[in-house]
Write a structure and sequence with these properties.
Elements lengths: L22 H12 L2 H14 L4 H24 L5 H10 L2 H33 L6 H21 L5 H27 L19 H12 L19 H30 L2 H4 L5 H9 L5 H33 L18 H18 L7 H26 L15 H12 L3 H4 L3 H25 L1 H4 L12 H12 L1
Helix pairs in contact: 1-7, 1-9, 2-8, 2-9, 3-8, 3-9, 3-14, 3-15, 4-5, 4-14, 5-6, 5-12, 5-13, 5-14, 5-17, 6-12, 6-13, 7-9, 7-11, 7-12, 9-11, 11-12, 12-13, 14-15, 14-17
């Protein structure tokens, strides 16, 4: 999942970011941020839960993302600043520990997303070169890939929106290729379109639980739209263009995902898709076995997931560095390499976490690794989205002096319910491992915060993690208004 971190400013020098992003660049940024590892790696696993109706979980995931997008749109047009969810939660509640936890969860979602991408990269590498790689070798390639990402991160990578345009077009080309080849096979009678409306659920699950499980997983493919709010200070007239651009970007990706999933289940039997770590490669090779285009897709997939991993690890290390500089994490995480001027210790620390995750989930050769890591990413972000939807309602009494988008009352409430439905174990059907990984990461964050609390003192540990100026929250302002009325 990709994001940009808050630009640090000298308190005595209020230099603003250049507003260079117009509607077209913002649209490409949003589409490129959403496209990536999810659809390239998880289409088969979604089909394993619901059968040929694999398009339905993607459509439901889009609906849940759309509900949350309305809340983000109200907040980003109301407060057109960087810092995203952490800013909104801090403004709404003003509880520094809660703000820290939200920020840390967002950082962890970047690590789990990158770890998912590393596994997908290794799997596509084997397919691209026609190799049957054992689980241990795939794990080692995934770890080596993360070390390569760390090396690039060490050198310092300047990610610009215009570069993202090129990367988006490459990622998009692979998905368009799958759609064209798939529908050509369907039109030529070389596919079974009747599978598209067939539900096949695992024997121990009800239809509702199977759809919830598949949607919880498919939601990983929809994340990324929330990162665009971090571009608010560099966007021209964000209050005006953000609503239509974000909604258009979500709509485009939803159409692509639905078409890709329809092609996948029509061309390839469900049994071959289930458990397949390179499902779209299988689709192209099955639909066009005599053409060389099937040999190209694994490398396009590698490029797409590599970009996802790099951007997410950059985001995670910078967030960790920023929290250290604010005094809410140990000081050693805020050290900068004298030679490269990059947050070296934070880069190493986030890479170690990623390597540990890859090793942990690879212990069982039969474990659906991409499902566990991708599902953990969606679990973490859905929890954050539930808080963001709540923050919209809390901040309603906070008035600003400019016009902004309004999500209403009903949409955020439904958004909270939908996000929690896909988070809770009894309704989402998630595997226990996803909660174990999320819990371990959360425990690590709390441990680091406690260590900082004891070593730096309470006042330092309770700083706002994003460096935001402490001001009355919406809750406090409402209480003050109530007292005044009395």
């Amino acid at each position: 999942m990709a994001t940009t971190t808050k630009t640090e400013r000298d308190p005595g020098q209020q230099t603003e970011l250049r507003r260079v992003i117009g509607p077209k660049l913002l649209l490409l940024f949003i589409v490129g941020d959403i496209l990536g590892t999810g659809v390239y790696a998880l289409t088969g696993q979604v089909a394993a839960e619901v059968g040929g109706a694999a398009w339905l979980p993607f459509l439901i995931a889009f609906s849940v993302a759309l509900l949350t997008a309305f809340s983000y749109l109200e907040l980003v047009t109301k407060y057109p600043q960087t810092a995203g969810a952490a800013l909104y939660v801090h403004k709404a509640f003003g509880v520094h520990f809660v703000t820290f936890i939200v920020t840390f969860i967002v950082m962890c979602s970047g690590i789990t997303s990158a770890s998912t991408a590393s596994r997908a990269f290794a799997a596509n590498l084997g397919v691209g070169f026609g190799l049957e790689l054992p689980n241990t070798v795939v794990m080692l390639i995934a770890m080596g890939f993360m070390l390569a990402v760390m090396a690039v991160n060490f050198r310092g990578v300047s990610e610009s929106v215009k570069t993202n345009v090129v990367l988006t077009l490459v990622e998009l080309s692979g998905l368009v290729l799958v759609i064209l080849v798939g529908f050509t096979a369907i039109a030529g009678g070389n596919a079974d379109f009747s599978r598209v409306v067939m539900f096949e659920t695992p024997g121990d699950k009800s239809l509702l639980l199977s759809i919830s499980t598949a949607t919880s997983l498919a939601f990983f493919a929809m994340v990324g739209f929330e990162d665009s709010v971090n571009m608010a200070e560099e966007t021209k007239d964000p209050s005006r263009i953000f609503p239509r651009v974000m909604l258009t970007g979500l709509g485009i990706t939803a159409v692509i995902y639905v078409l890709v999933s329809i092609c996948a289940v029509a061309v390839v039997p469900i049994g071959e898709l289930a458990g397949n770590e390179t499902p779209l490669v299988t689709v192209v090779q099955t639909a066009a076995p005599d053409f060389p285009i099937g040999a190209i897709l694994p490398f396009i997939s590698m490029f797409a997931v590599a970009n996802t991993a790099l951007i997410n690890m950059m985001m995670a290390s910078r967030l960790l560095y920023g929290m250290s500089k604010q005094g809410v994490l140990p000081a050693f995480l805020g050290r900068v390499s004298p030679a490269r001027r990059t947050p070296s210790n934070a880069i190493v620390f986030t890479t170690i976490i990623s390597l540990a995750l890859i090793g942990w989930v690879s212990l069982d050769p039969e474990s659906p690794i991409v499902v566990i890591l991708g599902g953990t990413t969606s679990l973490l972000l859905l929890a954050v989205f539930a808080v963001v939807n709540t923050s919209v309602l809390v901040l309603r009494r906070d008035k600003v002096d400019h016009r902004h988008f309004r999500a209403g009352v009903v949409i955020p409430v439904i958004g909270v319910i939908a996000c929690l439905w896909l988070v809770l174990p009894f309704s989402s059907g998630r595997a226990l491992e996803q909660y174990q990984i999320a819990g371990a990461l959360l425990a690590l964050g709390i441990l680091l915060w406690v260590v900082t609390w004891f070593t730096h003192g309470r006042k330092t540990a309770e700083k706002a993690p994003t460096g935001m100026v402490t001001e009355p929250t919406a809750v406090q302002r409402a209480a003050e208004d109530h007292d005044h009325d009395r």
